[in-house]
Amino acid sequence: QVQLVESGGGLVQAGGSLRLSCAASGRTDSIYNMGWYRQAPGKGREFVASFSWTGGTTTYADSVKGRFTISRDNAENTVFLQMNSLKPEDTAIYYCNARRWSDGYDYWGQGTQVTVSS
Questions:
Q1: Which of 11, 20, 53, 81 is the most exposed place for a label (fewest CB within 10 A)?
Q2: Tell me, what's the pLDDT at 53?
């Protein structure tokens, strides 16, 4: 099992910045990919960004390219999402995700609220 704990959400004005953190514990050796998804009110969960632990490859949704940066602290098994130039449409609950290499099973964190005011 893998446990994910997110932190760093909050309220910010448009144009501001926030940094989210996701700490993984447990069987972290079973993970090959970690990332972030978000879910806005009345909408489905959507992909935001991911970081491949095997090759360090990063992937971003078009809507956040150039504004968000995902990174990893290897020693702490922590993934960060630096969010700059935030827009009201970035308002959502942000969920940390970890994917198991053996079968693609997804682990999820509890979510952290990000609210961007106009």
A1: 11
A2: 83
First vs last C-alpha separation in the chain: 40
Residue in 73, 22, 77 with CA at minimum distance from that of residue 48: 22
| CB distance 6 to 112 below 8 Å | yes
- 31, 2 in Cβ contact below 8 A? yes
pLDDT of 42-84, one tens digit each?
Answer: 999 999 999 998 888 999 999 999 999 999 987 778 999 999 9
Nearest to 48 by CA among 70, 33, 15: 70
